[in-house]
């Protein structure tokens, strides 16, 4: 494909001015990534997020991470004092594989900045950091038990029944999924009862942000348990079922967070391109898969949702060569001909660029799907051409695209992983 694409240089924070103008008054800004292990995706998302917070008053960042660990970070960055020793110590909370996604030095810089920024703000206006994902079944059950036992209310028995239902499977949700494949008994009723009990335990609205968030977090952990149980049951059906449970959960969590922060609240989302880039403009649609980008546009309207994708031509990445493997630095080969990344590399001759979809929509060559690289937490470059390229209508999948020609692996913290990992569901590791 040979075409001349309109681009904007991308070197410093000031080069983001066209992006900020294009965001306009959007309430939700979704920032993607083409891998979970590339330094530049994290640092550019940090730069964009700082500008959105400072210039457009965004209220929180929500990421493709687990609720309990992210909420621990959220609580820490909203306090005046430093109670966590150091940010690397705080980020040890992300100790389940893949630990490097949120336990890395690039996130250390973001958390440091958020804490410093928040100390200058009134308590009710401090920026939050939350997790959208559904994998933390066991941790969320433990958090609920601690909460209800401290509160001493009527939800204690429901929480204990849910905890006891999962107890025979240790802390391994995959063992639960395998077990219910052969018996009719599961824990669906127990987690739903627990959620109802938490939501009806008290009609009184807590006073102050910290109390409201504490009650919200308990309710959210119960919602995680409900949807995690659904997720692991959906694994048995295969296909798009479990993917859709997960992305619908992330969208439900985003909606709840926006409601928590009020009618004028604004959200920044950090997730993989496969979650933020509207699924209707990829081959995911043929598989009846939905994602957060699609659901957000449908729920809030396209003018209120801005999606920015990321990608690169070649470099290195942190990933495992199989699910649960020790992370390593892996070379990312040059993107193949007829891919989106190769097209940009060829035109830009090694330069970085920002592209805006409003300037791309009239280009005939982009009216057809083009292969667009996606690297997950599992990556084997020798098989890249067989599963790492998502056919995409770029100008419709995203509202903007940030292209970094040469990228480097991010810098993981030395956090030892525990033995619990989510099941491997997708060939790309995403």
TrEMBL record:
What domain of life? Bacteria
Any matching Pfam family: Erythro_esteras
- SUPFAM superfamilies, sorted: EreA/ChaN-like
Known InterPro entries for this protein?
Emycin_Estase, Hydrolase/PRTase-associated, UCP036794_erythomycin
PANTHER family cross-referenced by the UniProt entry: ESTERASE, PUTATIVE (AFU_ORTHOLOGUE AFUA_1G05850)-RELATED
Its recorded name reads Erythromycin esterase family protein
Q: Give the species.
A: Hymenobacter tibetensis
Lineage of source species: Bacteria, Pseudomonadati, Bacteroidota, Cytophagia, Cytophagales
């Amino acid at each position: 494909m040979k075409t001349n694409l309109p681009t904007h240089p991308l070197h410093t924070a000031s080069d983001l001015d066209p992006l900020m103008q294009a965001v306009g008054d959007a309430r939700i800004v979704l920032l993607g990534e083409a891998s979970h292990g590339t330094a530049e995706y994290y640092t550019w998302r940090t730069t964009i997020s700082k500008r959105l917070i400072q210039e457009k008053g965004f209220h929180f960042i929500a990421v493709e991470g687990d609720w309990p660990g992210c909420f621990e970070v959220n609580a820490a960055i909203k306090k005046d004092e430093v109670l966590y020793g150091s940010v690397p110590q705080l980020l040890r909370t992300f100790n389940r594989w893949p630990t490097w996604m949120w336990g890395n030095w690039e996130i250390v810089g973001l958390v440091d900045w958020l804490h410093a920024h928040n100390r200058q703000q009134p308590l009710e206006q401090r920026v939050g950091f939350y997790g959208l994902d559904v994998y933390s079944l066991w941790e969320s059950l433990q958090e609920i038990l601690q909460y209800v036992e401290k509160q001493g209310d009527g939800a204690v028995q429901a929480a204990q029944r849910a905890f006891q239902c999962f107890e025979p499977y240790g802390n391994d949700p995959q063992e639960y999924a395998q077990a219910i494949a052969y018996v009719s008994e599961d824990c669906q009723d127990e987690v739903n009862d627990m959620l109802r009990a938490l939501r009806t335990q008290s009609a009184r609205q807590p006073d102050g942000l910290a109390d409201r968030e504490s009650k919200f977090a308990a309710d959210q952990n119960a919602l995680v348990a409900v949807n995690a149980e659904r997720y692991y049951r959906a694994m048995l059906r295969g296909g798009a079922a479990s993917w859709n449970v997960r992305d619908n959960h992330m969208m439900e969590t985003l909606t709840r967070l926006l409601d928590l922060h009020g009618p004028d609240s604004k959200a920044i989302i950090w997730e993989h391109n496969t979650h933020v880039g509207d699924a209707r403009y990829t081959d995911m649609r043929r598989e009846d898969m939905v994602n957060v980008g699609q659901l957000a546009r449908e729920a809030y309207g396209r003018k209120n949702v801005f999606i920015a994708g990321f990608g690169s031509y070649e470099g290195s990445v942190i990933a495992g060569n199989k699910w649960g493997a020790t992370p390593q630095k892996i070379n990312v080969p040059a993107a193949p001909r007829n891919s989106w990344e190769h097209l940009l590399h060829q035109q830009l001759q090694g330069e970085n660029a920002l592209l805006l979809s409003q300037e791309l929509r009239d280009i005939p060559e982009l009216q057809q799907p083009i292969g667009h690289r996606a690297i997950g937490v599992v990556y084997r470059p020798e098989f890249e051409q067989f599963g790492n390229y998502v056919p995409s209508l770029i100008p419709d999948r995203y509202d903007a695209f940030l292209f970094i020609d040469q990228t480097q692996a991010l810098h993981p913290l030395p956090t030892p992983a525990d033995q619990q990992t989510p099941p491997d569901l997708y060939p790309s590791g995403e």
